[in-house]
Amino acid sequence: MSLQPQQRCTPEEYLALERKAEYRSEYLAGEIFAMSGASRQHNLIAGNVFASLHGQFRNRPYEVYMGDMRVKVNQTGLYTYPDVVALCGNPQFDDAQRDTLLNPTVIIEVLSPPTEAHDRGGKFGHYRKLDSLQEYLLVSQEEPHIEHYVRQADKQWLLSEASSVQDTVQLPSISCTLVLAEVYEKVEFETYDTFS
Description:
Blueprint: E1 5-8, H1 11-18, E2 25-28, E3 31-34, H2 40-56, E4 62-66, E5 70-73, E6 78-80, E7 84-88, E8 100-101, E9 106-110, H3 116-120, H4 122-127, E10 135-139, E11 146-151, E12 157-162, E13 168-171, E14 176-179, H5 180-183
Parallel strand pairs: 5-8, 9-10
Antiparallel strand pairs: 1-3, 2-3, 4-7, 5-6, 7-9, 10-11, 11-12, 13-14
């Protein structure tokens, strides 16, 4: 999410504008925030995660969306576009357009330098208000690393991390597994010469 809002408007005005726009924007508290484009790394990772989940969802009553499925957090009024959203059960939408999901089960964000702090902090704060949300994943594009938050019965969130391409991440709410070697397929990481 960009730090500079474009204009102030109502949620209805935002949706009317957004549905005609050539680019995506997020919305919160009367402000529209333009979204920037994503890097090659970001797109490869998001695509790999989507492909993995999509393959595992065959013949199962689950759905997975990539990038363009808007999610609304009713409790806070945030409209946003997670990188990957998975759903267990029947989708609930904000209106008859069926383009704003209300009940995601799993949200996955690929971290980018301009948005990382927001994805970890403010945005996760909004997401935690979603009663349907059971798991939240933050996927690094700088190195093989996934932070996996799972909602507990006491509404606390349990963090686990995977940091090797040999690791897997179990997603119990949707009965899936992410294999880091697949998540990072074709992704090239920069190497830094620490001795120069």
